[in-house]
């Protein structure tokens, strides 16, 4: 795989309800990304947006965002998954040699739409949707129970992850203020309201408003734009089957295959990774993912020291628990990984990070997962 | 950088106003079956990645590709979803092209699928929801609801098309009869194509002109139907294509340039597309795609074209805007039979969107048909040998365009 | 009027059950930033029209736009717009009146003001025969008596005498 | 700049959909209406699906609708594979929190190879154990849709 550089990024501070109009928000985000790289609108050759028609409450949700999204008279398209999938499409466009500077923007405002209902709309309409039983919370409860039962994990081990992420989020000034809890304890997590047993409210990545944008350029152009770009070394993505009854919920097959593909194209192994930013919809998903990627053996994910100064820091920015803006969450994970590699993560910087991974996901129990391997460039 | 990409097959499901016998995934699997059938020796396990898309708000299901994983044959395979409204199909095809062209390790053969089962949903609310936010916003600025209703009817695709028709008819001085002639050609072609929706082998111009107006100057008989259907296209690398296909179809140029939104302007304000029949986006898309494909004289070099025209005036407009005919001459070409199946430059021999419109799939059926014409496997195969063809898509708030230019020999890119 | 739809070769398919589903758009909120409309509304009260000009590309938008798509900046320069305008494009819709059940013809006219580079939908003088409307037809704003500072202050557009009309052969 | 003027409005409409279930599910619902459960079997790997499917995702094999040998009558008993207790009820309109939790289980019908989600009735969360035997509680008036199954009760 040829080198493609991340040359600019921006994301709006996440909040439960942002004080922006829809187009306002898109404009601020896209403008912010361009400004971060010191570029102009006319430098863009392609724009990929990532929104969801059901999140925006309109069909063709990208049509009205052509102007504020910087896509006016530019080769444009929309990916309706997670932000990193949109980056994947932009990456492919650049790798094909047709484009020289790609902009990706992604995000949504859950304060304006019923998030759980939109997840219900995604269930099998001929069998599951009329029963109104399946949604993100229920799928998370089943997944956590399956994981705990399979490996005999204690609920405290999972609460520990939530505590770590909430504490990390407190150091990240762009995280959702409601999730920034510097003094939280394991007991607080376990005592918070039950969502879907055994998942409690503080183990769940609460949806909040947010939007993010990223700029990609091929090697030659990237070096002209910035002195320290971050290179995309490898990418893998995969989708497993839909019905929860067909799947082994205690593991993530999709992430396993995606990470295999990503590491193969990057030519590294899980051991080479210095920092990871994973999109965990629930605290236990971080453990399942770190096992699927190969940071820990199956069932040993909770033994891994993933604090900021630990063996392998996972989600030093606070992860999705620190702010989950549907569509943007995965993209924000990528941006945070880039910040770590550039040494710009003030307050939660991991020492000497050279290689990072960042993930995104779509669907119930992360049915479709994507993983990026990012490498520090420049000096 | 990049690599040569080929189309080796394309398949369709049967299209009808109500495919009541199949669920959405079952309909999609029909198209995939038809697509794979045309390539002997290729099985689902040979496919490395999937790209798909539809227009979700018309069918009521959010991200339905998750649910239909098994029906696609995508279990434990990489899958990407691309949706851009009316151009979804074209965007999916372009994404399929880029997935191969990017040269990611282990991703060689890509199946692109686009589908739509409109009979499940409420197309009018679906279309109104395009600008529902804008409507509510304007109403809170004080515009009475009765005026708004008129805005809604103008916001729908038919309203926009009639603006285009008004402007285009004024500029090129054509009559309604000329519009009807295009319809007759399309629907008679559709009768010879196995999967199409409106098969009318004996339609006459007078039949079309006898129907009432739906929105001036368009009549009921001129308007596209709403269909259920799916389309699949198979992309692969040059090496593998030579192995699998007799005539690999090289994708030489792709483009999808977006223009400003029109009519109901962005954020309830004025729209910059003063003349909806001007279509700057499509002109730029055509320029970009032809440049990539090394085509300097599209009029001479293109042998076959599939353009996305739900309404007849658009077909006339597009063939001119895409550079296939001189400005304001398209009508004469249709009259002279240049665009017929046995003509010099056949257009929409498949019957086009005017006869079959499963919105999400329509824009993919255009490049799919254009590719099949080169392979010689199309449902309504043209008489002359086709070497270069183009497939075009249109959608959004008349502002999104997709273009795919294909040929039986590669345009090498020297970089 | 004769039949609406044309006959075609139909194929019948087995009819299976359906499962219901709905999409409650009433649970959604649509948020817009109208901060840039404020000066525009203020001027409407004085029966004056202003447009917003992009300081980079000089495009004038009327009504004002939040973002200039060409330059990706917020336009910030206010310019006066004349009261005269032109028909940019038009159409006629045929709607069924729910009360009488009759199909009614309604004109939909997109208007571009002189001095502006964008168009928007407007209402044409109800007393004119809208079948005579053509692209490029000159219009003039008819104000309501007491402007309130909202979009309704423009009552409708009245048709003014087109001096070029007789010279224009390709009117239709 | 002067202060922001943000307008937030609710959408006013509702879009109605009716999803065609297809002939496989139609056959399934026909049986469900008679308080019977049927599934279909992959001719290659022998996995039994309930509800039935056109394609076996594992083998990518089409399971013919017409062939009777692909269809299997199943008992209305099963094993609980996994369950969760939730305090939230989500419908197409929105989410609301409820006082009395709902137990949702993933039940593997005997002789089948898949599991599906449904409610577990007449039991306290403490009583429910993974691996326990359950049976379907049929609704009195069946309509041939998912509501024919009220849920699962202790076998």
How would you portray this structure in words?
The complex is a heterotetramer of chains A (379), B (415), C (172) and D (155). By secondary structure, chain A is of the alpha/beta class. Chain A contains eleven helices and eleven strands. Chain A has a domain of 130 residues: Peroxisomal Thiolase, Chain A, domain 1, CATH 3.40.47. In chain A, α6 crosses α10 and α9 packs across α10. The longest helix of chain A is centred in the middle third of the chain and has 17 residues. Chain B is built from 17 helices and eleven strands. Chain B has a single domain, classed as Peroxisomal Thiolase, Chain A, domain 1 (3-Layer(aba) Sandwich), CATH 3.40.47.10. In chain B, 39% of the residues lie in helices and 16% in strands. Chain B starts with a strand and ends in an 8-residue tail after the last strand. In chain B, β10 and β11 form a beta hairpin. Chain B is α/β, with parallel strands linked by helices and 415 residues long. Chain C has one domain. Chain C starts with 17 loop residues before the first strand and ends in a 13-residue tail after the last strand. Helices cover 5% and strands 37% of the residues of chain C. Chain D has 155 residues and is mainly beta. The longest helix of chain D is centred in the N-terminal third of the chain and has 12 residues. The mean pLDDT of chain D is 91. The chains are: A alpha/beta (379), B alpha/beta (415), C mainly beta (172), D mainly beta (155). Chains in contact: A-B, A-C, A-D, B-C, B-D, C-D. At the A-B interface, β3, α3, β8 and α9 of A face α2, β3, α4, α6 and α12 of B.
Quick take:
Helices cover 33% and strands 18% of the residues of chain A. Chain A has 379 residues and is an alpha/beta fold. Chain A is globular.
Entry keywords:
heterotetramer; A: 379 residues; alpha/beta; Peroxisomal Thiolase, Chain A, domain 1; nine-stranded mixed sheet; two-stranded antiparallel sheet; 11 helices; 33% helix; 18% strand; globular; B: 415 residues; 17 helices; 16% strand
Question: What's the story with the biggest beta sheet of chain D?
Answer: 5 strands, antiparallel
Fourth-level CATH superfamily of chain B: Thiolase/Chalcone synthase
Using the coordinates above, name the CATH class of chain B: Alpha Beta
Structural class of chain D: mainly beta
CATH fold node name of chain B: Peroxisomal Thiolase, Chain A, domain 1
Task: Please tell me how large the radius of gyration of chain D is.
Answer: 20 Å
